[in-house]
Amino acid sequence: MPHRVLVAKELAEFLGVLSHPHRIRIIEELRDGERDVNSLQKALAISHSGVSQHLMLLRAHRLVSERRQGRQVFYQLRQPDLAIWLLDATRFLEVETAVVEELREAIDKTRQAWNAE
Predict the structure, then answer these.
(1) Distance CA 113, CA 117 (A)
(2) Strand order in the sheet with 72-77
(3) Cα 5 to the chain's mean position, in Å?
């Protein structure tokens, strides 16, 4: 397989893993360190099984790793720069003046929240 085709295929698969809002939120929640499923569930306000399914996919694609402490499992980013990269990617949402003001305000608030943590 030609190198450009192989890299394009791998990037598409990688971006596909990131293509769900809950997985993006999980990555941002893990930016400052490890978290367990219960704390992620509270932060995302979704079911325990929903968090577990998203973590399973992120783990399968080697984006997060786990550490067990007794019965509790803690998750962390394998490459913490991924969270920074996602925050940087928000600038692509600000395409010229086509972005509605509500989205622009949401982007600003999200950047402030993610940078404050």
Answers:
(1) 7
(2) 35-36, 72-77, 64-69
(3) 25
Task: Mention every residue, 6+ apart, whose C-beta is less than 8 A from residue 43.
Answer: 25, 29, 35
Burial 79-104 (b: 16+ CB within 10 A, else e): eeebbeebbeeeeeeeeeeeeeeeee
Q: pTM for the complete prediction?
A: 0.82
> Looking at this protein, which amino acid is placed at residue 73?
V
The CATH number that applies at residue 91 is 1.10.10.10
Check whether 70 has a pLDDT greater than 90.
Answer: yes
- Report d(CA 117, CA 95) in Å as an integer: 26
What is the number of domains present in the chain?
1
Domain extent, residue 15, equals 3-116
pLDDT digits (tens, 9 = 90+) for 23-48: 999 999 999 899 999 999 999 999 99
How large is the average pLDDT for residues 79-96?
A: 86
pLDDT of residue 84: 94
